[in-house]
Amino acid sequence: MSLPQQSVYVIVPYPGPSIESDRLLLRPVTDSDAPALFAIRSRPEVAEMNSPNIPFKSIEETREWMATKVFRNGPPDIIGRSFNYAIVDKSIPETEERVVGSLSINQVDPFPEIGYAVHPNSWGKGYATEAVQLMLKMWWNLARRAVEGEDAYLPQAEKAFALCEKMNAGSRRVLEKCGFKVVGDFQEDGDDLFIFALERP
Q: Which segments of the protein form a coiled coil according to its record (predicted)?
């Protein structure tokens, strides 16, 4: 199956909004988060299920990856912006590292794709599910643009997508709990991936 194609409906603000629950705070990633994100992305068990499947070896490599979250395609007002968030565990004392994961809209063109990772020490607590739900709440509530032409009749069918390795049972459960459904599959760089989609409520 080919990858999805969808017009860009969203208007991405800068800076992006923040949102929190009783347990978590989602706030835009800053450069100072690089060491915490390196601590996550350098773990083999995290890298195994995230492109490029190789543990990061340095904070500088992490910063290079962070830069890939800036949108390079789409409408002119989108380019140069991002929707990249740190997952902050509010129960951790402020004197310690509170960033336990990250999630983002990796791209908006040719389709809005969600990606996320959580430090293994915080697995099994439902943080990924809760964070994805919080991000979706922000994403769906952003302002939308008028779409003209052949796609103009499609706003009611706007969707968010996620690519998930078929063997990543934990991530599949996260997406299913958030309401995503498998709509196809795809192969990329030797990885077998499910394509998940969720329609805007």
A: none
> Does residue 186 surpass a pLDDT of 80?
yes
Whether 73 is in a domain gets the answer yes
Terminal CA-CA length for the chain:
25
Q: Which two tokens stand for residue 190?
A: 């030797």
Total domains present in the chain: 1
Distance from C-alpha of 201 to C-alpha of 196, rounded to nearest angstrom: 16
**pLDDT digits 0-9 by tens, 136-177:** 999 999 999 988 765 554 545 899 999 999 999 999 999 999
Structure tokens at 70: 């800036």
Mean pLDDT of the chain: 92
Give the three-class secondary structure for 44. helix
- Residue 23 maps to which CATH number? 3.40.630.30
Give just the sign of the alpha carbon dihedral 145, 149, 155, 158: negative
CA distance 127 to 122: 7
The first and second tokens of residue 73, run together, are 């395609």
- Cα–Cα nearest to 115, from 15, 19, 196, 22: 196
The secondary element (H helix, E strand) that includes residue 177 is: helix 169-177
